[in-house]
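Record 1 of the preview.
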Amino acid sequence: MAITQDISQEKTIIPTLDTWLHGSGGTKAQITQTVYDLPYAPPLSGFITQQNLRNRVSYAATGTLATDAGFTSATYYSYDIHGNVDVLLQDYNGIAAMKLNDPFINQANRYKKITYDYDLISGKVNQVNYQPGFENAFYHRYTYDAENRITAAETSRDMIVWERDAAYEYYKHGPLARTRLGQLHVQGMNYAYTLQGWLKGVNSTARSGADGRACATGTANDKLDINIRPVFGQPLQYVAKSEINFLDGLKAPPAMCLRHLLILPPLPATLLPTPPKFMHRAIWAATAPPPETRW
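->
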């Protein structure tokens, strides 16, 4: 029997939705069960102790068929007193290979645990811990400025030696100004914005320089990455609709669109005698700024 609007809304007709779900025949597949308030039973001692579950998701389990004896995978949650998830446990019950004991971490490999540490005032995530205490543990740590903007992201395998994956600098009026990637500053990305706060460029918009560089290098204040050559430049130009009438099939172009140009550096002469001019252009609608402040 096909589902109807009346059946789905449980109106005073027969069959009801419950009857339709359990007595209509057929094979029910791709089952998802979400449980609130009540902890999973039996308790997963040694992996997670579920707390503060009132009016919150306790666990969500998925199954292949409704006739299967158990679930395929599940995610269990525990919360702090503020309602933030402080422990998350993944259960890969349906993957036979993961149910075997892992000789490297000496535990049932079907469970993967993630814990979260929060700032008590701002609620920002200070640290994410994957498999804490086990040999395959991995940790993420985040640093913020006085305005709660992230300034650094670091990773570690033992919480002793930390490696900085990214650092972030901001303009005084708020937007992101520069991103530095890697402990050794292997790449830097500078951001420029319009008066409206729209992104108008990443790195330099120049195709090449006198020395063959694709984009400008760091400034004199960037002691560690002054000679690092950016991999790409990305200018974003806002143009009037009269400039995009060449688009096929665009019957009603918007008043203002954004032209996206991706500029890649030329290949070294040893690899390619004549560096190609790679350029990709895509156009999509954007809200029109006032004409007198258009970039």
